[in-house]
Automatic annotation (TrEMBL):
PANTHER family (UniProt xref): AMINOALKYLPHOSPHONATE N-ACETYLTRANSFERASE-RELATED-RELATED
SUPFAM superfamilies, A to Z: Acyl-CoA N-acyltransferases (Nat)
GO molecular function, one term: acyltransferase activity, transferring groups other than amino-acyl groups
Organism classification: Bacteria, Bacillati, Bacillota, Bacilli, Bacillales
Any one cellular-component term (Gene Ontology): ribosome
PROSITE patterns documented for this protein: GNAT (PS51186)
The protein's name in its UniProt record: Ribosomal protein S18 acetylase RimI-like enzyme
Pfam families (UniProt xref): Acetyltransf_1
Sorted UniProt keywords: Acyltransferase, Ribonucleoprotein, Ribosomal protein, Transferase
Amino acid sequence: MSDSIWIRLSQMGDAGALMELDSLVWDEHSTPAQIEWKSREHYLQKCPPGSQLIAGIGEEICGYLGFDSPTPLESNRHVYDINIAIHPSYQRRGVGRKLMEAVKQHAAGQGIRKLSLRVLASNSEAFAFYQSCGFMEQGRLVEEFYLDGQYVDDILMWCPVEAH
């Protein structure tokens, strides 16, 4: 199956499909606040073309992986902060792993040395997936969010990028 997965940088025309994907993926189990886009223009301001890797099978967009510098500081330019979303119908089919491999290659080509991400402690499947992709816990914000009647830790993870 993974042989039929394609990966490319995001384009202007992807906005609608990616906004729809966000509405399907991000919920109280995966994020502390529901993502709501006010408009296509709002989405494109926050996620401009080329700031995400898009995965697809055939004509379908199956997922994305967004990447950006965590701060505007020059001293922080060697880091990409990433986020990943896979359409529920395509989860556990190699799409996320292919996106992770692709972002590591893309990052290495851009001189990036570190990938970082955040995951809710209650999202154990995502945490395990990130570990299987080479991410390690680098910190934990204890009881950072109150979600669905319980306090949830926010786990900070990182992965070194191998120079190519």
